[in-house]
Every structure is written in C-alpha cells, then in structure tokens.
Design brief:
Layout lengths: L5 E6 L3 H13 L3 E7 L3 H9 L5 E3 L2 H6 L5 E4 L6 H11 L3 E4 L6 H14 L4 E4 L6 H12 L5 E9 L9 H20 L3 E7 L15 E7 L4 E7 L7 E8 L2 E5 L7 E3 L2 E3 L6 H4 L1 H16 L10 H20 L2 E2 L11
Parallel strand pairs: 1-2, 1-4, 2-3, 4-5, 5-6, 7-10
Antiparallel strand pairs: 7-11, 8-9, 8-15, 9-10, 11-12, 13-14
Helix pairs in contact: 1-9, 4-5, 5-10, 7-10
The structure holds nicotinamide-adenine-dinucleotide and 1,2,3,4,5,6-hexahydroxy-cyclohexane.
C-alpha cells in the first residue's frame, strides 16, 4: 500500500459490494478501499470490517462527499444508481457503476448530460464481459476481418436459478442488458430493433415468470443476434456467444476447463455463477479502471455512460417487444464527447 494509492469509496454493500471490496483489497494494485456506505448500516459495517483501514457509513452520500475518497464504486440496485452517479459527477470523481447505468433511457440521458456539463469523462459501466479474455479475443478476431464480416451471433445466457421477485421484464433489463452491450461492442454498431419470443416455460420457473425467452437483436448494419435467456436452467452458469462470419465461425464461452474421462463417461465442470465465470474479467475491469482513474483518464475499452444509455434504450425496446412484437430502438444523436 502506498500514499499514492487510489482511495476508493464503495456504496452498496450487498453481494457485489462484498465481492468488489474483497477484490480491491486482495487483488487490485495501486488502490485501496477507504469507505463503505449502505443505508443498511450493518451491511456497510460488515463489509468495511473485512478490509483493514476501511470505515463504514450508514449514509452512502457521506462516502461520496468524503475528501479522502478519490474514486467511487457503485454496487447498489440499479434503481438508485442515478442520484449516486449525479453526486459523484458533481464532486468530479471517477466512478465505476455496476450494470445497469440506470434502469431507463431517460434517466441515463440525465447522467450523460451531467457528465458532459462537467466537461470530463468520469463514468464507467460495469459491463465486465468486455474484460473476459475469450470475449476480448473474439472481438479482436472479428475486427481483424480474418473470418470476413460477422453475419449472425448465437448467444446463450443461462443462470442456475432466478432470485426471488425476478420478473419476465427483468430477464430483459437485468440479464439481456449484458447481451445488448456485448453485441454493440463486438460488432461496433448500434442496435436497431429488438423482438422477443416466448417458448414454453420451464417447470422450474416461479409462477408468472416466462422462462426461457428468445430475444432477437438487429444492429444498424444488419447483423442479427439471437439470445436464449434462461434464468432457471438449474445446472449452472453459462454465457456463450458464437459469431457466424462470411468465412468461418468463432465461439466464446464453450465449456472449458479440465475435461475428465472416467468410468462410463467423460465430462468437465460448469461454473456455478457469474463471480466464478467472470472472475478474471471482474479483476481486469477493476485493475484497468483503477489505473485509469489514478492518472485522471478513462479506459477506452470499457463501457462509457453512452454505452450504458444505449443498453438502457435497447432494454426498453426489449420490454415493449415482449408484448408488442418487433420494436425499434431510438437513440439521441451520439455527442462528440463520447466519440
Ligand atoms: N456484473 C454482474 O454480473 C452483476 C452481478 C450481480 C449484480 N450486478 C449488479 O450489481 C448491483 C448490486 O447487485 P447485488 O446483487 O449486489 O444486490 P444486493 O441486493 O445484494 O445488494 C445491494 C445493496 O445496496 C444497498 N442499497 C440500497 N439502496 C442504496 C443506496 N441508495 N445507496 C447505497 N446502497 C444502497 C442495499 O442495502 C444492499 O446492501 C446491481 O446494479 C446489479 O445489477 C451485476
Ligand atoms: O444481475 C445478474 C448479473 O448481471 C449476471 O451477470 C446475469 O447473468 C444475471 O442474469 C443477472 O440477473
């Protein structure tokens, strides 16, 4: 630890907040956690107690206004991201905000406006797949043109089970929000339209949840991505994306790891959850964010507030498409600030 470390404040001390606190303490260099805030003061205290030198606040805004906080991590539920982001932008500190930027495009636009008014890029959205080695390799391959142009993407996003209160709409704006960002980032084009189909529902789904769903995403350049979102698959956590190109295909997220051949069978293992599947991605995301924040810059490969807004707009179209059929995505003109 050095006096030049980036001093990080964390708001939201739930599952992700706890993970990120550990990550910063154990695996990120040049940065340390100094304050944790959560309206649930016990949670804040518990997470702060797990990191030597960190203190807790029952008011998250006290963390944001603390003069010894150089940069902020937001790991609270999406519905409260906007006021926390606006407070961080007002103080002029870099912020890494867990997905989503905000839950809808109107509030995302307010964040974009505040950031532009401050004149400096400060916001990064936690779309961690951008740091997953296989997804990075797939993007580089697509950009190299070695397989020709991408035509179709086949994506699967499976969770073992949905948390209590998870709704059919959340399957779009809490889960498929990752694919909206991944597709835009892989292809380098905005999303033009979204449609949703509902196959028959798994008997494992809680009452009222239409699970799985098939989401079709069309980009402005004519790439079509199909996404199977299945949040009660029961057996583990899987995220896959296969790109079909003019001269070949490439798949990120194929079952990897050790392949075991044993009595009467062979097999490998499946990750249990996102913290396992994307452990390396989260670590890289945080290290690169901290490195950029320490020098007053932003990571050009990370998701910006613009990316967060574009994903929110696609999610809105996706939720409308659940009942209205194919729905177009309308974006404001991209400001030069986010070029
Ligand atoms: N990148 C990923 O794969 C991934 C995975 C899970 C969750 N997330 C995102 O991380 C965020 C947190 O999710 P979680 O699963 O940790 O939720 P959680 O419910 O476990 O924890 C959220 C915490 O935020 C606190 N909180 C509520 N209002 C607050 C406020 N105004 N200010 C500060 N804290 C407040 C709650 O008391 C709670 O302790 C969400 O945005 C979620 O979408 C991302
Ligand atoms: O909040 C979580 C998280 O974003 C996971 O990465 C995703 O797989 C889940 O579907 C979502 O509910």
């Amino acid at each position: 630890m050095s006096e030049h470390d980036l001093r990080i404040g964390l708001v939201g001390a739930g599952r992700m907040g706890g993970d990120h606190a550990r990550r910063i303490h154990e695996r990120i260099s040049g940065a340390r956690l100094v304050a944790v805030g959560d309206p649930d003061a016990d949670r804040a205290e518990q997470v702060a107690a797990s990191v030597p030198g960190a203190r807790s606040h029952g008011d998250p805004y006290e963390v944001i206004s603390s003069s010894d906080v150089d940069a902020l991590v937001i790991a609270s539920p999406g519905v409260v991201h906007e006021p926390l982001l606006l407070a961080a932008i007002e103080r002029g500190i870099p912020v890494l905000c867990e997905k989503p930027l905000t839950p809808d495009s109107t509030s995302s636009l307010r964040v974009l406006e505040a950031e532009q008014a401050g004149g400096k890029r400060l916001v990064q959205v936690g779309f961690m797949r951008r740091f997953d080695p296989e997804h990075v390799e797939l993007r580089e391959l697509l950009r190299s043109g070695a397989l020709g142009r991408a035509l179709v993407l086949h994506c699967a996003h499976r969770n073992p089970s949905s948390p209590p209160g998870f709704t059919s709409e959340m399957m779009i704006f809490d889960s498929v929000v990752h694919e909206f960002d991944t597709v835009r980032w892989l292809v380098g084009e905005e999303i033009r339209a979204v449609s949703v189909r509902r196959p028959r529902t798994t008997s494992a789904a809680p009452a009222g949840l239409a699970d799985p769903q098939l989401v079709t995403i069309e980009t402005t350049g004519g790439v079509v991505a199909d996404v199977e979102i299945f949040v009660n698959c029961g057996f583990g956590y899987q995220v896959r994306c296969e790109a079909v190109c003019e001269h070949g295909t490439a798949l990120a997220g194929a079952a990897g790891g050790l392949r075991v051949h044993g009595t009467a069978g062979w097999g490998g293992r499946i990750d249990a959850d996102f913290s396992e599947r994307f452990a390396t991605a989260f670590d890289r995301e945080f290290q690169r964010w901290a490195d950029a924040a320490r020098t007053g810059g932003v990571d050009p490969d990370a998701a910006s507030a613009w990316d967060g807004y574009a994903a929110a707009a696609a999610c809105e179209a996706g939720v409308r498409a659940q009942s209205e059929g194919t729905t177009e995505v309308r974006l404001v003109e991209r400001p030069g600030f986010y070029a």
